[in-house]
Amino acid sequence: MNYEIFRRTEYLIGSSGLEKLSGSTVAVFGLGGVGSYAVEALARAGVGTLIIVDYDTVDITNINRQLHALNSTVGRFKTDLTASRLREINPGLVVYARQLRFSPETAAEIFNGKGIDFIIDAIDDVENKAALITESVNRGLAIVSAMGAGNKLDPTSFKVASIWKTSVCPLARVMRKRLRAAGITSDIPVVYSTECPRQIATGTGGKQVPGSISFVPPVAGFILAAYVVDKLLSLDIFSDM
Questions:
Q1: CB 169 within 8 A of CB 152
Q2: 43 near 50, Cβ under 8 Å?
Q3: Where does the record locate the signal sequence feature (predicted)?
Q4: CA-to-CA distance for 8 and 10, rounded, in angstroms?
């Protein structure tokens, strides 16, 4: 690791903290408006190994909120763009880019043989989001999950709590039901918003599409990254669930 890159971070967490982060492996599932910012924050904090998982390409509608989305990157795979960007930040960073959709069928391919210290769930798909949390719990892996950041305008409304203690967030409500059905009863830390969702816009063909804005999803991503760093370093910034 080039410690000069992280000199200002060392002033804050010390050389032992940097060593701990450098030796840690974090997997980030979903590289959208939340996940793209979370994974970059981890790289800039000094995490030494990152596993990034996403199946999608950049769409023009991603430009308003996703870190890798530019007019010049439309149509390119998010994993490729993100891996390249992360290596520019820290050439010593180890990045495993997995261009696939997480599901129970792909879980073994992602997890087997990798010593993962923490997982960030920034998946949008409800079914596979529940599957990722279930798989992580069953494997004894630490995880923090992002709840809904769409249809929100207040970035100051995010909180961290056990999923069983959340309120207002419609996605958290659905996830509680899914996790109970899967037999998951343990406390799962989540980042969620207490802001009531705004009216859902209607896209083409009558399909409901959530609205988004540039300054809300990134905040959720930064909180996810902060939570992971807090737990890896035992800083106790975030209280136990």
A1: no
A2: yes
A3: none
A4: 5
Q: Which residues, at least 6 apart from 107, have a Cβ–Cβ distance to it below 8 Å? A: 131, 132, 135
CB 60 within 8 A of CB 153: no
Are 61 and 150 spatial neighbours (Cβ–Cβ below 8 Å)? no
**pLDDT by residue (tens digit) across 66-79?**
999 999 999 999 99
Contact of 137 with 93, CB cutoff 8 Å: no
Question: Angle, nearest 10°, between helix axes 126-138 and 170-181?
Answer: 50
User: Do 191 and 224 touch, CB atoms closer than 8 A?
Assistant: yes
CA dist., res. 36 & res. 44, Å (int): 13
Which residue type occupies 18? L
Q: Give residue 16's identity as a one-letter amino acid code.
A: S
Residues paired with 29 in a beta bridge: 53, 121
| Helices and strands in the chain, H and E counts | 7, 9
198, 152 contact by CB (below 8 A): yes
Domains of the chain: 11-197+210-233 (3.40.50.720)
**89 close to 97: Cβ distance less than 8 angstroms:** no
Instruction: For 138-190, write each residue's pLDDT tens digit.
Output: 999 999 999 999 999 999 999 999 999 999 999 999 999 999 999 999 999 99
- pLDDT tens-digit series, residues 181-238: 999 999 999 999 999 998 766 666 667 788 999 999 999 999 999 999 999 999 999 9
